[in-house]
Amino acid sequence: MKTHHYIFLTTALFVILFYDQDLGLNLGILGILYAVLTFFKTVEKNKTRTFYILTVTSILSSIAFAWYGDFPSFLAVVSSLLLLAYKSKNRRMKILLLIPVFVVNSCTSICRIFMLDDWLPKGNVSGVWQKIMAFVLIPLLLLSVFFGIYAAGSDLFAALFTDYELDLNLWQVFCLTVLGFFIAFNYWNYAVEKLIYKNNQFLDNDFQKDVQAPKATYSFLDLDAERISGIVSFFSLNILLVFFIGTYNYEQFYEASKTPVQLSEETHERVNAVILSIVMAILVIMFYFKSGFNFDPKAKLMKTLAKIWIFLNAVLILSAAVKNYEYIVNYAFTYKRLGVFAFLLLSLIGLGLTFIKIQKRKRNAFLFNTMVWYFYVIILVCSYFNWGGFITSQNMKRKDFAVNYHFGSVNFSEKNLLKYAEEKNNLKLKKNLQNKIKSEKAKTFLSKIGYYETIK
Predict the structure, then answer these.
(1) Residues 268-295: what's their mean pLDDT?
(2) Fewer CB in a 10 Å sphere around the end CB: N or C, the chain?
(3) Cα separation, 444 vs 453, whole angstroms
(4) Cross-strand pairs, 218
(5) Could you read off the pLDDT of 146-160 as tens digits, one per residue?
């Protein structure tokens, strides 16, 4: 099939799947269809290991949305399919250019749609398509336009058709067709501008040979002075960080106990301070090791001090993680507290990649190119696993289990709450849960959420 066949086919599927439906199983089906069609449309040379992995994750993300239908799974479907489409045509393009490519295409698609010669076949159209176009589509379009004109000019003419009612929401069909065509057109027929192609080389992970010679970054500061500045800066920052780790851990583990509200505020403030500190630490290292110092034989001491600083920042992250775990043990699991672990994990990964950057003499772009993939993995983990069920199952073991909070604020906790209601003989909770599950099961087939269909 040609590109226009994929565009029209997926537009029709979009209308069929979403007409008079809510988001649910339909988006999962559409995501799987997009992934499968992309696989068959992609040329063999672009079917790299990354492409195969993205094909699998796109299908799994679509299944996850069909099962949960929540925002993390929606984000996983969108990001997976965008990455898949991007890599299916541009196996060497850096992932950081994905957003500019699709933003530019979305903004220019209105103009590109009317450039028919660029995406519709120019010749050798089969006789069947010619007949459909000539005998059906064009006459139907003209008939619809003139019917509207005549109906507006003659009440008697319009009255001839008032006794016939078409059980079809034409406005909804029109809107779904426009939206489906917009999505399909930008997915199957996106273009990478020359300016973006030219900038791809600036995002390479490795240095070019012509920039490996050590040289001063600024004209007002020679190489030796800049090197000494780095040594003094990293030495001072290491000393400062050692004292901060000491005071930070003392405040966390040895100060007098506080109220839950005070402890919550202080924990979040300290975790935010740790994450900000890690980001600033990485930026400082990127500043000093952005070019020639990676290959400077006299910069060994500065590299050592930078690696020590990375290690001390990792200790700081582990201290914050231990405190967050203690906070959870005392005051139960929540989405935010699990989210803290996710941010701390990403910070630790960032430090590890920074160490690799120094050790392997990589460019700063290496950090961004690699971290994007770790963010993507975090999105997948959030979408594939039932974190609401995990939170509820763990908190049910506590004596201070907050039933109303888990019923109203924790997603996909119904199975565990039903079990809890039966154990505690809580008839009101059981009835509320059954009503909620019943309303979910009452949805039409394409709007259903798989999770609720498994609850008996």
Answers:
(1) 81
(2) C
(3) 12
(4) 221
(5) 776 777 777 776 666
Beta partners for residue 221, in sequence order: 218
CA distances for 172 relative to 67, 180, 186, 296, 423, angstroms: 26, 12, 21, 65, 47
As a whole number of angstroms, the distance between CA 128 and CA 239 comes to: 78
Place of tokens 């290690």: 311
- 88 CB neighbour count, 10 Å cutoff: 20
The tokens describing 18, both together, are 């979403």
Two tokens at 35?
């992934």
β-partners of residue 362 are 206
| Number of helices and strands in the chain (H, E) | 21, 0
Which position has the token pair 């609401």? 388
Joined tokens for residue 224? 């030796």
Q: Domain ranges in the chain?
A: 3-198, 215-362, 388-453
Structure tokens of 147? 């019917």
**Is pLDDT of 163 > 60?**
no
CB 68 within 8 A of CB 383: yes
Query: What whole-number distance in Å separates Cα of residue 95 and Cα of residue 373?
Result: 8
CA atoms within 13 A on the CB side of 141: 6
Based on its alpha-carbon atoms, the radius of gyration of the chain, rounded to whole angstroms, reads 29
> Residue holding tokens 């099961």?
441
Answer yes or no: are the C-beta atoms of 176 and 13 closer than 8 Å.
no
For residue 284, the model assigns a pLDDT of: 86
Q: What is the pTM of this model?
A: 0.86
The three-class DSSP label of residue 68 is helix
29 Cβ contact partners less than 8 Å away, ≥ 6 residues apart: 17, 62, 66, 446
Burial code of 293-310, b = ≥16 C-beta within 10 A, e = fewer?
A: bbebeebeebbebbbbbb
- Quick one: DSSP state of residue 137? I
